[in-house]
Amino acid sequence: MKIEPLTTNEILFDSFLIENLNSFDEFIEIYEKYKHNNSDKTIILTLDDLGQAEYTSGHSIHSNDIDETEGYDLSGLDKACFENNEHLGYLSTPSEFFIRIGNFLKQTKDIDFKSVCERDLTIDEDEISILEKINLSPFEYLY
């Protein structure tokens, strides 16, 4: 197993890539270790393809204006966020993460499960069956 920190300028929080896992139990052990050692943080593990997840998230961030800085006090941000005393125009440091959280919460505050269901979102029975199988044994679907 290999765990290495991700260090791109688009990640606004501590992120790690885990490779060569041998079991789902090992995956859960990593979660428990990080949660124990970082009790003040939210730990999220995902089995997503990193490149695809970043690509899809980027589209969502941009199309929903999640990185919009208007109305936020930028005076306390890391100096790396500025060039010639002007904000770069995109979020690039952990000091800016509060902006992304704030915009997300503003846009989701009036959304509840009932309103989502009223949009007639559907999923085929075959897809539900596949999701159930994946949740029972995720590692069978990773290779």
Task: Describe the overall structure.
- The structure is a single chain.
- The two termini are 15 Å apart.
- This protein has 5 helices and 4 strands, in the order ββααββααα.
- The longest helix has 14 residues, at 24-37.
- A hairpin with a 2-residue loop joins strand 3 and strand 4 (86-87).
- The strands form 2 sheets. It has a two-stranded antiparallel sheet with strand order 1-2. Strands 3-4 form a two-stranded antiparallel ribbon.
- With 143 residues, it is mainly α.
- The relative contact order is 0.11.
- It is globular, with a radius of gyration of 19 Å.
- It has helices at 24-37, 50-63, 97-108, 113-117, 125-136, and strands spanning 2-5, 16-19, 82-83, 86-87.
- 40% of the residues lie in helices and 8% in strands.
Please provide a brief summary of the model.
With 143 residues, this protein is mainly alpha-helical. The protein is built from five helices and four strands.
Q: What integer is the average pLDDT?
A: 86
Query: Biggest sheet, open or closed, and with what strands and sense?
Result: 2 strands, antiparallel
Helix fraction by DSSP (H/I, runs of at least 4): 25-40%
Query: What is the terminal-to-terminal distance?
Result: 15 Å
Radius of gyration: 19 Å
Strand order of the largest sheet: 1-2
Summing up helix and strand content along with how strands pair, one would put the structural category as mainly alpha
Shape: globular
- β-strand percent reads 5-15%
Uncertain runs are none
Number of strands: 4
